[in-house]
Amino acid sequence: MSLLEVERINALYGDSHVLFDLSIHVNEKEVVALLGRNGAGKTTTLRTIMGVLSPRSGEIRLDGKPISGLPPSAIARVGVQLVPEERAIFGGLTVEENLRLAALTAPKPWPLDRVYEVFPRLKERRTSRGRTLSGGEQQMLSIGRALIRDPRIILMDEPFEGLAPLIVRDLVNVSRALAAEGRTMIVVEQNVAAALSFADRVYGLNNGHVVYEGSAKELQAEPERMASFIGVG
Ligand code: ATP
User: Fold this and answer.
1) In this structure, is the dihedral angle defined by the CA atoms of residues 67, 73, 78 and 84, taken in order, positive or negative?
2) Where does the record place the ABC transporter domain (predicted)?
3) How far is the CA of 19 from the centre of ligand 1 (A)?
4) Nearest CA to 219 among 231, 206, 204?
5) Distance 111 CA to ligand 1 centre (A)
6) 41 C-alpha vs ligand 1 centroid, how far in Å?
């Protein structure tokens, strides 16, 4: 049994059908990348797993137990964390307050220092308010807020989007380290090379359908397959 099983889900925004019988799974300690063009349904898949959107049909299970239909707060309590594209931080609170708040409702949160070991920059900035952070620091804080809750699985939506190359390099290194220590993750990324550098397995999405599944190594070896559904080589 996989840690996360998404089975034939259909998701709609109003009358607009966005995910069609979509099935994916993620094994424990595995990093899965979701790739596809804009509008393919990647963000919607993460939002549906997190319970922000309820699937119209199909089932989502964590450790074999159904979670679809639960509110996001309940899904967070059983160990799912979404790091959304728009960065979930409180601008008026300091870095440390942001982290403490995220830890508050977690069953077994990490000590603050463990987050600071992952992101030393956050320690330097611990008394700064969220809104004064650079884009890269905000993304570190957003990921730090997920990590401090020690979740079973982290859903990352375009973590490298809009960041300078040097910051992307740092965040890719952190992602690699998290993958190496056995964190289970789903990552949605437009930066395919960055995602493939730490993903184990890949799903390609197109128009709300899974159109490709393979190991990251296989996909790296056949870039023409990648081009067929992502539009880049
Ligand atoms: P992107 O990289 O642009 O975020 P994506 O693969 O994550 O792409 P989604 O954001 O999941 O794609 O969008 C899938 C489809 O659902 C698109 O056609 C989009 O226009 C539509 N959609 C997304 N959010 C909403 C919404 N809140 N209301 C209505 N339609 C939406």
Assistant:
1) positive
2) 4-232
3) 10
4) 204
5) 36
6) 6
pTM above 0.80, yes or no: yes
Around ligand 1, the residues with Cβ closer than 6 Å are: 13, 16, 18, 36, 38-44
* 143 and 159 Cβ atoms separated by less than 8 Å: yes
Q: Which of 10, 12, 13, 229 to mutate to test the pocket of ligand 1 (most atoms within 8 A of CB)?
A: 13
Give which of 158, 156, 166, 99 is closest to 128, Cα–Cα.
99
Rounded Cα distance, 87 and 139, in Å: 6
Element (H, E) at 114: helix 112-118
pLDDT tens-digit map of 8-40: 999 999 999 999 999 999 999 999 999 998 899
Report how far residue 225's alpha carbon sits from residue 223's, in angstroms, rounded to the nearest whole number: 5
| Predicted-assembly ipTM surpassing the 0.90 threshold | yes
The residue to mutate among 9, 16, 206, 229, having the most atoms of ligand 1 within 8 angstroms of its beta carbon, is: 16
Q: Provide the residue type at 166 as one letter.
A: L
Query: Tokens representing 188?
Result: 């949605």
Say how many Å lie between the CA of residue 219 and the centre of ligand 1. 25
